[in-house]
C-alpha cells in the first residue's frame, strides 16, 4: 500500500494547485478504496454539496462493479467461472456480455498477449489474493495450464448466455475492469452536466473538460522512486493508463514477480518496470487505457513498438527493468511541448 500511495500522490498532487484558480470556482474531491486500490473523483465548478453527492454516486457505481466482477470473492464473475468449469452455460446480463466481447476483441487484436482467460495461472501465482506472498508454482503446473490454451475466443455467446469451449478458461478482469469503471464514471458525470472532472482508479485516469483556463495535469510515476519522471496535461476525453511492476508483486530469490502474466509462457513478466499510454475518443477511452497497457508490458523492451503499432497506439512511454526510458515520437513531442521554455 505504501508504494501505491507514492504512485497516487505523484499522479494527483498537482490537483491541489488547481483548486480555487478561478474566482468562485473550486475542485472538490471524493476518495474511496475499491478494486483493491485507492479511487478518487475530483469535480470542478459545482457547488460543494452537489460535487460531494456526485462523487458518492460514482463511488457507489465503483462498488457495484467491484462486487460484480471480483475475480475470487463470490461475484457474478466467479459464478460464470464456476459454470465454465462444470461445462455449463451461465445466464449473464447485457453489461457482462458487452464487457467480455470487448475484452475478446482486444485479446484478438493483441495476438492474445492480453488474455483475461488465464485466471487459473493468476491464481497459481498467488495474485488472486489481497495478501500477496511469494509463490513457487512448479514448471509442470504452469506448463499444463499453458498447454490448455485458455483464450477469450473460447467463450460462446448465445444472447446473454455465456459458455466456453474450454473448461480451463477462468476469467480475471483485474487488468480491464478498472478502465471500464473510468468510462462508467464519465458517463454518470457527463449525464449530470459536470463541466470538469478528473477520475482516478488506481493510477488510471480520465479527464472531463478542464478546470478553468488550465488543463488537468497529472504525473507519471518513477517506478523505482518517490517522484515523477514527467507530467502530462490531459484534454477532455483523454485517459492515461499505467501498468507497473511496483504495486502488486512479490520478491523471491532476488527476482521480482509482478502480477502481469505472459500467457505464452505462464511466467510473470519481469523485463518492464512500467508502461504508460494515453488514449482518447469514443466512450471507451478508459477501458482501452487499462487494457492496452497489458500487451505492451508483456511484449517487453524488444517488441513493444511493434505491439503499439499493431494496436494503433501513438502515445506510449515505457520504462524497462533497467530503468531505461523509451517512448513513441508522439509521446516525446507531447512531453517536450509541456516543458518550460528557457528565456
CATH architecture of the largest domain: Roll
Q: How would you spell out the order of helices and strands?
A: HHEEHHEHHHEEHEEEEEEEEHHEEH
What is the fold named in CATH at topology level of the largest domain?
T-fold
Strand neighbour order, sheet with most strands? 1-2-6-7-10-13-14-15
Number of strands: 15
* Secondary-structure content class: alpha+beta
- The amount of helix comes to 25-40%
Mean pLDDT: 90
Sheet having the most strands: 8 strands, antiparallel
CATH superfamily of the largest domain: ApbE-like domains
Number of domains: 2
State the name of the first-level CATH class of the largest domain: Alpha Beta
Query: Which descriptor suits the 3D outline?
Result: globular
Topology:
Blueprint: H1 2-12, H2 15-18, E1 27-34, E2 37-44, H3 48-68, H4 76-86, E3 90-91, H5 94-109, H6 119-124, H7 139-148, E4 155-158, E5 161-164, H8 177-191, E6 196-201, E7 204-208, E8 216-221, E9 228-234, E10 239-244, E11 249-252, E12 255-258, E13 272-279, H9 285-291, H10 293-311, E14 315-320, E15 325-327, H11 329-338
Antiparallel strand pairs: 1-2, 2-6, 3-5, 4-5, 6-7, 7-10, 8-9, 10-13, 11-12, 13-14, 14-15
Helix pairs in contact: 3-8, 8-9
Please give a structural write-up.
The protein is of the alpha+beta class and 343 residues long. The chain has 2 domains: 2-53 and 178-338, ApbE-like domains (T-fold, Roll); 76-164, ApbE-like superfamily (T-fold, Orthogonal Bundle). The protein has helices at residues 2-12, 15-18, 48-68, 76-86, 94-109, 119-124, 139-148, 177-191, 285-291, 293-311, 329-338; strands at 27-34, 37-44, 90-91, 155-158, 161-164, 196-201, 204-208, 216-221, 228-234, 239-244, 249-252, 255-258, 272-279, 315-320, 325-327. Helix 3 runs antiparallel to helix 8 (177-191) and helix 8 packs antiparallel against helix 9 (285-291). The N and C termini lie far apart (42 Å).
Amino acid at each position: 500500500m505504501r508504494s501505491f500511495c507514492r504512485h497516487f500522490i505523484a499522479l494527483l498532487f498537482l490537483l491541489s494547485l488547481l483548486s480555487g484558480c478561478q474566482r468562485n470556482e473550486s475542485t472538490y474531491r471524493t476518495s474511496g478504496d475499491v478494486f483493491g486500490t485507492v479511487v478518487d473523483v475530483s469535480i470542478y465548478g459545482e457547488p460543494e454539496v452537489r460535487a460531494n453527492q456526485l462523487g458518492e454516486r460514482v463511488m457507489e457505481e465503483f462498488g457495484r462493479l467491484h462486487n460484480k466482477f471480483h475475480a475470487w470473492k463470490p461475484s457474478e464473475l466467479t459464478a460464470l467461472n464456476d459454470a465454465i468449469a462444470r461445462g455449463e452455460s451461465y445466464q449473464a446480463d447485457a453489461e457482462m456480455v458487452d464487457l467480455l466481447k470487448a475484452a475478446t476483441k482486444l485479446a484478438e487484436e493483441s495476438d492474445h498477449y492480453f488474455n483475461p482467460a488465464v485466471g487459473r495461472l493468476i491464481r497459481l501465482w498467488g495474485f488472486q489474493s489481497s495478501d500477496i506472498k511469494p509463490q513457487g508454482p512448479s514448471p509442470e503446473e504452469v506448463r499444463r495450464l499453458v498447454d490448455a490454451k485458455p483464450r477469450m475466443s473460447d467463450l460462446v455467446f448465445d444472447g446473454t448466455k455465456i459458455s466456453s469451449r474450454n473448461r480451463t478458461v477462468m476469467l480475471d478482469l483485474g487488468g480491464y475492469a478498472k478502465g471500464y469503471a473510468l468510462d462508467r464514471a464519465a458517463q454518470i458525470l457527463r449525464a449530470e452536466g459536470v463541466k470538469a472532472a478528473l477520475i482516478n482508479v488506481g493510477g488510471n485516469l480520465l479527464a472531463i473538460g478542464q478546470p478553468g483556463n488550465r488543463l488537468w495535469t497529472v504525473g507519471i510515476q518513477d517506478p523505482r522512486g518517490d517522484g515523477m519522471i514527467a507530467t502530462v496535461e490531459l484534454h477532455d476525453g483523454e485517459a492515461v493508463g499505467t501498468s507497473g511492476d511496483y504495486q502488486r508483486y512479490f520478491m523471491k530469490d532476488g527476482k521480482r514477480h509482478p502480477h502481469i502474466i505472459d500467457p505464452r509462457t505462464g511466467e510473470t513478466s519481469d523485463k518492464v518496470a512500467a508502461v504508460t499510454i494515453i488514449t482518447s475518443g469514443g466512450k471507451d477511452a478508459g477501458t482501452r487505457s487499462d487494457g492496452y497497457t497489458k500487451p505492451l508490458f508483456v511484449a517487453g523492451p524488444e517488441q513493444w513498438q511493434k505491439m503499439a503499432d499493431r494496436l494503433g497506439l501513438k502515445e506510449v512511454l515505457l520504462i524497462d527493468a533497467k530503468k531505461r526510458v523509451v517512448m513513441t515520437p508522439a509521446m516525446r513531442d507531447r512531453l517536450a511541448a509541456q516543458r518550460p521554455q528557457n528565456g
